[in-house]
Specification:
Layout (H helix, E strand, L loop, with lengths): L9 E15 L2 E12 L6 H11 L3 E4 L3 E7 L6
Antiparallel strand pairs: 1-2, 2-4, 3-4
């Protein structure tokens, strides 16, 4: 997301969405909500963010100076 902003200030909020899950395969996963707000966002970056999000089961919402990402909390198995 860093290259998507031409901003002096970027604020990030991370929340866990209680009671909402996403089904991937036969398993349910909780959802993390990442809200990135900047005083100036490069509009051309929306398409790139959307492309990356779709590849990773992430739902995106775009507002004027805010991008909201709903990310499934999938544990990593090493």
């Amino acid at each position: 997301l860093e290259k998507c902003y031409d901003a002096n200030e970027v604020n990030i909020v991370l929340k866990i969405k209680i009671g909402e899950t996403i089904m991937l395969g036969s398993k349910k996963y909780p959802i993390l909500m990442l809200m990135v707000k900047a005083d100036k966002k490069a509009e051309r970056s929306n398409e790139e963010i959307e492309k990356l999000a779709l590849q990773n089961h992430i739902t995106t919402y775009f507002q004027k100076d805010v991008v909201i990402l709903e990310i499934p909390c999938i544990p990593v198995t090493l």
